[in-house]
Amino acid sequence: MRQSSAKTLLLRYLLRLSTNSSKREKGYVLALSVVIGLIMLTIGVAMVARSQVDRVTALSQGATAQGEAAAEAGLALYQNLITNNRAIALYCSATDTEGVGCRSNTAWTNANSWNRATTGIGVCNADATPLGIQSAAARTGWTNIDNTDLGKGQYRLVEYTLPNATRTLGRLTVEGRSSSDARRAGITRLQAEISIRPGGSSAAPALWLRLNGGTSNLRNNKFNGNIRLNLSNPCTLPTWIRIDNLVDSASQSIITEPQVSFPTVPSFQSGTGYYNLTSNNQTRINSDNRIWGSSNTNSTITFPRSSDLPAADGRYHYLIDRLDRQGNSRIDIRDNTEVVFYVRSTIDIRGSVRINCAGSGNTCTLPNTGSAGQLTIYGNVGGAYGTCQTGGSGNSQLPCNGSSQTDRQNTNTIQLSGTSRIRAFILAPNATAGVNGGGSNDDSAFTGAMWVNNWNASSNNSKIMVNGVGSYGTYLSNAADYDLPAISPVRSWTRLQVPQ
User: Fold this and answer.
1) For residue range 426-467, what is the model confidence (pLDDT) as tens digits?
2) Is the pTM here over 0.70, yes or no?
3) Dist. CA 117–CA 258, nearest whole Å
4) β-strand pairing of 188-197 with 169-177
5) Greater confidence, 417 or 280?
6) Start-to-end Cα distance in the chain
7) Which of 108, 115, 103, 96 is nearest to 132 (CA)?
8) Do 344 and 291 form a contact (C-beta atoms < 8 A)?
9) What is the average pLDDT score of the chain?
């Protein structure tokens, strides 16, 4: 009995031990499950949080990218505006814009009321009319890049300013944003610097017509260079001129803007470098001999003459009664010098006369070293250079005998004919000019620039009447008054911090 009881007690002990062990293991499993659950929960929360951060980051980056794209589009819009009406590059976007070069009374915001003659603002380019510029300057609030595609974002003009007094640099600042960005999170501010060079570097017009009375007709005449017209209505070309009058319409233009005044002729002064070759009461023969060297129609003379001294401006100035010749005479201009003729009356060159045209061929030869001599010819306006005298007869007649008073006090006509050759700049605001060569090589009759009142093509000759050379700055000391500023293309921009 005792042995049986002992076995029973042992079995009960083992059973209790086994039961306690099982309970402890279950406790460990439960604790482990709780820990694992907490870890998984933490990971899940973290992944959800990260997903939210990634989503916010993606949205922010998308808004920023769209804002930058919109700002770039805005910059391009205003750059095109400036390019299409270069005069506005010299004025700030608003009258209260800060900048040393800004002008308090003249800005883009009032462009439609600008004085066209003094500012040079154009009116004919549909992409940059004065009213359009004024409207663009007012877009300081958010404007859709494309109303039909809001996904392209919005832009607004911050300012266009001129930070220096010389107005050689413009700063254009524009902001862009997503169309749905109401929290300013994706606004991008970009600034571009625009290099501005004063007017004067553009190619000078081969032919510039003042069109102050009288009539013009170019017919089939050709001009190797730009043609500029002072029209009362610059947006409509008259019927007497066509794009076909240009030798190369792809690179040359008929210019009607800016609507500035026609250049004026300077006065003939006195002192060193100024030589009066007019005859006053002496004969026409004496007058012509002073400019051509002799009455022989095969004569040759060189200016400046060996005893002449230059004026303070480095040039040699000569006042003459008229420039009238036929035959084979020639006037040479020394290399590396500048000579100016002030003509009281007519200019009429016939035959095979050569003026500042070295060589003997169809074109004027240039020196191997240095520069060819330059000749400027100014025509008389209202007696500014005096009056060419009339009277006498035969060999005793005075230089302008038989001419009317207006023709003796103005250069009213300029005529080139035959196979004559001239290389010069002619400014004669009252003259009607024409080239009527009869030879087969008339393409080289005149080289330089001819700026006159009217052009009269007496025939349908389709040869080149004028070969244009030089820039506005070549012929005018105040070239910026007649030529628009040159704008360098913007190659980069700078991102600025957006003020809060």
Assistant:
1) 999 999 999 886 554 567 789 999 999 999 987 788 889 999
2) yes
3) 7
4) antiparallel
5) 417
6) 98
7) 108
8) no
9) 89
